[in-house]
Amino acid sequence: MTDRWIVGSSFGWRPGTRTVLQPGPVFEHMASLRGVTGRVRLTVLGTAGGDSESWSYRVHEAFYGTRFDVTVLKVMPMPNIDDPAQLLLDSDVVWVNGGSVAGLLALWRLHGLDDAMRAAWEAGVVLGGVSAGSLCWHVGGTTDSFGPELRPVTDGLALLPYGCGVHYDSEEQRRPLLHALVADGSLPTSYATDDGCGIVYRGTEVHEVVADRDGAQAYRVERTADGVTETPLPARQLG
């Protein structure tokens, strides 16, 4: 059976020295999960951020001179690729950027990318992303898609049968809301990541926790008879 990999994270990009962005070590790690030793076919989606032209340019600029051959897949104002599903299947790695996960899910379903992502994952393409790009693979989680007061989202793609918490150590509403949603059964057992941390899933099981910042870690949040319990999951440093 083909290995299926997802990296759900609160990291990805770093500030560039000569460019606005530069890729963090997670991209090379995802290529290694795919087993690619030469050129890497990378598809990047900025759906959650509105598919802006400036962001697309920054992505291409960030990977210039690397071994990554980048295609930015847009759905706004219309898909920029004739066959997005085939593009995803032909990729080695797919990266989804942050923004509105509610908007992302609606647009992906409108254009059939929900089914296309599942097909790519089942074919062995390594999926990953940051923030909304992490939430989307899960059952749901906490989001600011609707405003500054966080609300739950519970209609994720559910490739992973867990809830998701992102920016766990940097946004004060994240932890208490995730705990409340797990405690009342709105979300199942959930995994959360500090900024600078990601979780690698092999199939639907946690394979390892990785980080590109000292001290960043992940957490497993489970419902108990008394409410919830939170278990820290230390991370291995990348790069």
Description:
By secondary structure, the protein is an alpha/beta fold. The protein has one domain (5-214): Class I glutamine amidotransferase (GATase) domain (Rossmann fold, 3-Layer(aba) Sandwich). Helix content is 25%, strand content 31%. It has seven helices and 16 strands. The chain has helices at 26-34, 53-63, 84-89, 101-110, 113-122, 132-135, 174-183; strands at residues 5-9, 13-15, 21-23, 40-45, 68-73, 93-96, 126-130, 140-143, 151-153, 163-165, 190-193, 197-202, 205-211, 218-224, 227-233, 236-237. It has an eight-stranded mixed β-sheet, with helices on both faces. A six-stranded mixed β-sheet has the order 9-8-10-11-14-15. α2 links the parallel β4 (40-45) and β5. The longest helix is centred in the N-terminal third of the chain and has 11 residues, at 53-63. The chain is globular, with a radius of gyration of 17 Å. The model has no long low-confidence stretch (mean pLDDT 97).
Give the secondary structure arrangement, pairings included.
Blueprint: E1 5-9, E2 13-15, E3 21-23, H1 26-34, E4 40-45, H2 53-63, E5 68-73, H3 84-89, E6 93-96, H4 101-110, H5 113-122, E7 126-130, H6 132-135, E8 140-143, E9 151-153, E10 163-165, H7 174-183, E11 190-193, E12 197-202, E13 205-211, E14 218-224, E15 227-233, E16 236-237
Parallel strand pairs: 1-7, 4-5, 4-6, 6-7, 8-10, 10-11, 13-16
Antiparallel strand pairs: 1-12, 2-3, 8-9, 11-14, 12-13, 14-15
